[in-house]
């Protein structure tokens, strides 16, 4: 049997499969209980030690050692954190790094396939120093941010930020 025959046979057999949402029993173990998923991927040219990543990030995030962490791909880990508050804090304080490499972090809803989580887009902080005082404002921040990617937010809470000569 050549490859095209094998492929046609496979297509014929799978075309008879059906799945309906109402067939899911809510009692099935489809949730992660009180846990919240975070998916992480390290942007690096070489494969890193997942155990070192796990240990370092648990300490950095202040998570308990019993936190479940699963390897889901090369340099890609899923963390099951115990509280929504922990997950929000980790996501709010992005970007994170590991040994100088960017750690892309996204929430992962359990009803989504891993391939549906876009790990190619992420937010970064840009600290621009040495600006003339007159340029330390939201308009400059937006122009600089848009040169890097897409501007999201500038932390210019008070007028005193202007005197720091940095965005």
UniProtKB/TrEMBL annotation:
This is DUF4283 domain-containing protein. The lineage of its organism: Eukaryota, Viridiplantae, Streptophyta, Embryophyta, Tracheophyta. InterPro entries: At4g02000-like, DUF4283. It comes from the Eukaryota. Residues 38-115 form the DUF4283 domain.
